[in-house]
Specification:
The complex is a heterotrimer. Chain A is an alpha+beta fold. The N terminus of chain A is likely disordered. In chain A, 12% of the residues lie in helices and 16% in strands. In chain A, strands 2-3 form a two-stranded antiparallel sheet. Chain B folds into two domains: 242 residues, 3-Layer(aba) Sandwich (Rossmann fold), CATH 3.40.50.970; 122 residues, Rossmann fold (3-Layer(aba) Sandwich). Chain B starts with a strand and ends with a helix. Chain C has one domain: 3-Layer(aba) Sandwich (Rossmann fold). Chain C has 13 helices and nine strands. Classes of the chains: A alpha+beta, B alpha/beta, C alpha/beta. Chains in contact: A-B, A-C, B-C.
Chain lengths: 85, 376, 312
């Protein structure tokens, strides 16, 4: 195969932030209370944006759109949605 | 040059044999008269192991072209064929092939367009695809069909632009003519295996044709437009090298007959242009210095070759087998006039629409047409 | 047993910062699908939200080779790719395990404009997985009615609520006699994951339809995507089942509803949370329109209970 080229074909390559820094869309940010969290990973599995780290339950705010699904699905109430400044 | 084989065969079967010679990988197909014979022949070759390829019996021409472009994007050499309304049904996906720079080769067996129904040849179908970004050849013999399909693959894959090889329904597709088949070794020398510059490959994930901003979209379109024009040199090179390897020549961008001293130049494409050679002979017998210019390549329009080939002060008689709706006459005449304008003011262009819906175009009829056009 | 979410792989095929709306069920489901398919796959997309989500040239939010195809041609395009890969392998131009060819298509591209090509690909039993992420409308163009829009639903082209029931696409695909058909939805990721793993292992045509509640089109609160998906299943408005070689089995909790061990929740609660239906309640015929919707659900449960007994 010749070298991969984008000389004339409309080709795109995988990259985070293909939709921009989507964290800027957020009006509310999810905040995790690690004392209440039971590490069940439901927030991780349901996050449409893949911004939650499954073991430490940390959130990549650069891309988190603040949809709040994680907060609704959290069975222990460990995630609260706090208004962005 | 290895020993070639000479057989008697139809144009449709000649096309199928070219598909085999080109070692095509994937052939999606859907029946439509008069193209069906190509697909039947290819399906049989795949079935009996003569051609190591996949035949995909799709449910319509829109899907035939969709499967073709997708298979091409996966890295395969792809062929399909259609006619008339089948070609029109593909229209949307023809744009995807050219915009996506996918070197699909397709035969269109020319047939008049519905409505009302007709089964017979005219050139409305292929000329109606003028703006789809495909290179278009028009062929005047069974041998040329075979030769051109091989040249088409080479050109398409060199510049990543799809190529349509057109020829008339029945007069070419269903009539027997002698056909010379070069040795496979020679064909392989002429047409190397397809090596895509880009393909759908999980080892290098990348995507094809995401949404683009104007800043990205416009350059892609500009490149396509420029590359279609640039393909002229590849078309010539392919014809030349094919001649060197096989000894056969159908012209490159244009084909001419007794043109050098002609005062009256017949201008037409496809099978009628083969018959026109005989009309030229009739006119010459009558003392008229007639000649023929047949654009073998319709798109890109071989502007320079036409301008350079036509003798001074000639009258050009364009015989169009199509209508240029909204304008008087046919499409070829309009195209020709637009390129001559300001370049060859010594020439006169006259135009008749003939042979619509398969009306027989005999040598005598066309000679008489040219004579009557001279009177105009 | 359904795979525990803790056992799902770490790798992500849907990258953060994509163009999807917040709470999008398409990217939510595609993440799980990605974990099942892995990177050795080729993705096809027709015009849809998933294309709007994938980023603009030259950026791509999905970690696969992807091809955007014309709207009507997911089925035939996937056929082209799968045949190309197979013949290239036969001819020695490709080595190793062939990638899974899958289409990620909305309900418009599946039920409506893409139906013909999909039906033909199914009839040919070409090797691919067709995923329909079904948000029950043309959401990407601003929520117009599709063949998947349920009766009673408001869309911009059904201003007084859709009068007709939805087309039953999963059953239509089942009747194509393909090796695998399944339904899934975002609230049950383990179930979805298992179904994709299974589909991947079966040669031929596989069809998986994923109910994808879209907060914008359905008019509920953005954080409630998963909740709405769960309510759809609990009310019986969406049944979880799979059919291997035509043999239907139901998945929990739909299996409990089918077997009669659990009552389906009344549809009222499910529809009351969705703005696309609540307009109905303001009309004089509210009661009869809701009764129609309930009847559609009851009828489907009863039909599927009996259909599952036929194993040809």
């Amino acid at each position: 195969m010749k070298s991969v080229t984008k000389a004339y074909q409309p080709i795109s390559w995988p990259t985070k932030g293909a939709g921009g820094d989507t964290g800027s869309w957020r009006t509310h940010r999810p905040v995790v209370d690690s004392h209440i969290c039971n590490k069940c990973q439901l927030c991780w599995v349901y996050c449409p944006e893949a911004v939650i780290e499954r073991h430490e339950i940390t959130i990549d705010y650069r891309y988190c759109k603040g949809c709040g699904v994680c907060a609704v699905e959290c069975p222990t109430g460990a995630i609260s949605m706090e208004k962005e400044e | 040059m290895k020993t070639a084989q000479v057989i008697m065969d139809t144009g449709a079967h000649a096309a199928a044999l070219a598909v085999k010679s080109a070692r095509v990988d994937v052939v999606p197909g859907y029946p439509i008269t008069p193209q069906t014979s190509i697909m039947e022949a290819v399906a049989a070759m795949v079935e009996n192991g003569e051609l190591h390829a996949r035949f995909i019996p799709v449910e319509g021409e829109h899907s035939a072209m969709a499967a073709a472009v997708a298979a091409s994007a996966a890295g395969a050499r792809v062929f399909t064929a259609t006619s008339a309304n089948g070609l029109l049904y593909m229209h949307e996906v023809l744009h995807m092939a050219s915009g996506g720079r996918l070197p699909v080769v397709m035969c269109n067996v020319n047939r008049g367009i519905f409505a009302p129904w007709t089964l017979w040849a005219d050139h409305q179908d292929s000329f109606a695809q003028r703006d789809t970004g495909w290179i278009q050849y028009h062929c005047s013999s069974n041998q040329e069909v075979y030769n051109t399909i091989l040249q088409a693959f080479r050109v398409a894959e060199q510049i990543n632009i799809p190529v349509m090889v057109n020829f008339d329904g029945f007069a070419i597709s269903h009539c027997l003519m002698p056909l010379t088949l070069p040795a496979q070794e020679d064909i392989d020398r002429f047409l190397p295996p397809y090596e895509p510059g880009w393909r759908l490959d999980p080892a290098h994930p990348s995507s094809f044709s995401n949404v683009t901003n104007a800043a990205e979209y416009a350059p892609f379109r500009e490149m396509l437009s420029g590359d279609i024009l640039a393909s002229i040199s590849l078309v010539k090179q392919a014809a030349q090298e094919y001649k060197e390897i096989t000894g056969m020549w159908d012209g490159d961008t244009i084909d001419t007959y007794l043109l050098e001293d002609a005062e009256v130049v017949a201008f037409a494409v496809n099978s009628m242009a083969a018959e026109l050679r005989l009309s030229i002979d009739i006119l010459r017998e009558q003392g008229i210095k007639a000649g023929l210019l047949r654009p073998r390549l319709y798109l890109p329009f071989p502007t320079e070759d036409i301008i350079n080939a036509i003798p001074q002060n000639a009258q050009i008689m364009v015989l169009d087998r199509n209508y240029n709706f909204g304008h008087p006459g046919g499409i070829l005449a309009s195209e020709l006039k637009s390129v001559l304008f300001g370049r060859r003011n010594d020439l006169t262009v006259k135009n008749r629409v003939v042979g619509i819906g398969g009306i027989d175009l005999t040598r005598r009829f066309m000679a008489e047409e040219i004579l009557s056009m001279m009177e105009e | 047993m359904t795979t525990s979410i803790k056992k799902l792989p770490d790798f992500e095929q849907v990258l953060s910062g994509n163009g999807a709306c917040g709470g999008c069920p398409s990217t939510m489901a595609l993440r799980i699908v990605g974990k099942a398919l892995g990177p050795n796959a080729i993705m096809l997309l027709t015009p849809s939200c998933a294309v709007a989500s994938m980023g603009m040239t030259p950026k791509l939010a999905y970690n696969w080779p992807c091809i955007n195809v014309t709207f009507a041609t997911a089925g035939s395009s996937a056929s082209g790719i799968t045949h190309a890969l197979e013949i290239m392998k036969e001819k020695g131009r490709l080595q190793g395990e062939l990638p899974t060819v899958f289409s990620w298509v909305g309900d418009g591209g599946t039920y409506d404009i893409g139906f013909q090509a999909l039906s033909a690909a199914a009839e040919r039993n070409d090797n691919m997985i067709h995923f329909c992420y079904n948000n029950e409308a043309y959401s990407n163009t601003g929520v117009q009615r599709s063949g998947a829009t349920p009766r009673g639903s408001f869309t911009t082209t059904t201003p007084t609520g859709k009068r007709q029931p939805k087309k039953n696409m999963t059953r239509l695909m089942l009747e194509h006699n393909i090796p695998y058909v399944a339904t899934a939805t975002v609230a049950y990721p383990g179930d979805l994951y298992d179904k994709v793993i299974k589909a991947k292992s079966i040669p031929g045509m596989k069809y998986i339809e994923i109910l994808a509640p879209c907060y914008l089109g359905w008019q509920f609160d953005m954080p409630e995507t998963v909740k709405m998906s769960r309510m759809a299943v609990r009310s019986g408005a969406w049944l979880l089942w799979e059919a291997e070689n035509g043999r239907i089995s139901f998945n929990s909790p739909s299996s409990l509803i089918i077997s009669g061990k659990r009552e389906a929740e009344p549809v009222n609660e499910y529809v009351m949370r969705q703005g696309r239906f609540t307009r109905l309640f303001k009309s004089a015929a509210a009661e009869s329109r809701i009764a129609e919707m309930q009847a559609d659900i009851d009828c489907e449960i009863a039909f599927m209970r009996e259909r599952a007994k036929i194993t040809t």
